[in-house]
Amino acid sequence: MRDTRNITKHELIGLHVQVMSSPDPTHVGRTGRIFDETRQTLLVSTEQGDKCFPKKDSVFRVFLGEAKADIEGNRIMFRPEDRPKKVK
């Protein structure tokens, strides 16, 4: 079961997300639902359309019901299917 302590080992697709920090200041504060993920990006459906946010040097806040967890993009820069084995 995914929770705030082990979220980085689980599937992120379908979660509501907010960009907390990014090298691109226009990304900060954007919110939406993750609809796909690659090794280096999160693809998010926002009110302004689908957006691609790089994981490198970014921090994302994901929401699990009432709980929330901040994820450093550098820590999840793996193919999604490899993440459970590689994230510590």
How would you briefly describe this protein structure?
About 5% of the residues lie in helices and about 40% in strands. The chain has one helix at about 85, and strands at about 15-20, 30-35, 40-45, 50-55, 60-65, 65-70. The longest helix is centred in the C-terminal third of the chain and has 4 residues, at about 85.
Describe the structure using short key phrases.
mainly beta, SH3 type barrels, 42% strand
Which helices and strands appear, and what pairs or packs with what?
Elements: E1 16-21, E2 31-37, E3 41-46, E4 49-54, E5 59-64, E6 67-72, H1 83-86
Antiparallel strand pairs: 1-2, 1-5, 2-3, 3-4, 5-6
Any overview of this molecule?
It is a single chain. The protein is mostly beta strands. It has a single domain, classed as Roll (SH3 type barrels), CATH 2.30.30.210. Helices cover about 5% and strands about 40% of the residues. The protein contains 1 helix and 6 strands. The protein has one helix spanning about 85; strands at about 15-20, 30-35, 40-45, 50-55, 60-65, 65-70. It has a 6-stranded antiparallel β-sheet with strand order 4-3-2-1-5-6, with no helix packed on it. β3 (about 40-45) and β4 (about 50-55) form a beta hairpin.
Report on the biggest sheet: 6 strands, antiparallel
CATH topology: SH3 type barrels
- Helix-strand pattern, N to C? EEEEEEH
Number of helices: 1
Terminal Cα span: 17 Å
Question: Which geometry do the CA atoms define?
Answer: globular
Structural class: mainly beta
Q: What oligomerization state is this entry in? A: single chain
Biggest sheet: strand arrangement: 4-3-2-1-5-6
Rg calc: 12 Å
Strands, count: 6
Quickly give the CATH architecture: Roll
The parts where pLDDT drops under 50 for at least 5 residues are none
